Amino acid sequence: MIEFHLDRASGIASYLQIVQQVKHAIRLGVLQPGDQLPTAREVVDRLAINPNTVLKAYRDLERQGLAVGRPGLGTFVQGTLGVATVAAQDETRRELDRVVQAGRAAGLDREDVKAIFAAVLNEVFREDSA
Q1: What CA–CA distance (Å, rounded) separates 56 from 25?
Q2: 130 vs 117: CA distance, rounded Å
Q3: Radius of gyration of the chain from Cα atoms?
Q4: Chain centre to alpha carbon of residue 93
């Protein structure tokens, strides 16, 4: 089961952080259709947030077709994201690890690497959005 974490300094609304974490877990295969998400009460107790925040996140996931609420049972993953194979994801992850390690060895810190990664990501995928 997924455990949510909030970065209160990120400027991103708590419900959106929950949605993003579920989407990442689905995309990476950590969550599969049929898997149960933590109950709203469990998330509220763990993160000390308003129950409506969790419910808003779960409703948003339902609207996107990624989750379904079953009264009395909970909320379950329903959809999938991405079309990349596990092998392709693993290969990309290994290559990214190599690049990040090289950056770290060159003296770059986490924020340097994140900035470079974001710039390259935006450059590469700019073509897709044109």
Answers
A1: 18
A2: 20
A3: 17
A4: 15
Type of residue numbered 32: Q
pLDDT of residue 128: 57
Residue 35 has pLDDT above 60, yes or no: yes
The answer to whether residues 65 and 30 touch, using CB atoms and an 8 Å cutoff, is: no
Q: How far apart are CA 38 and CA 76, in angstroms?
A: 9
Task: Answer whether 0.85 is exceeded by the pTM.
Answer: no
120, two tokens: 């390259």
Own/partner contacts of 88-91, CB < 8 Å, gap of 24 or more, are 89/28, 89/29
> 51 exposed, middle or buried (CB, 10 Å; 0-12, 13-18, 19+)?
exposed
Q: Where are the alpha helices (DSSP H) in the chain?
A: 14-27, 40-47, 51-63, 86-105, 110-129
**pLDDT (tens digit, 9 = 90+) per residue, 76-126?**
999 888 767 778 888 998 999 999 999 999 999 999 999 999 999 899 988
Residue matched to tokens 């993953």:
77
Contact 103, 73 (CB under 8 A): no
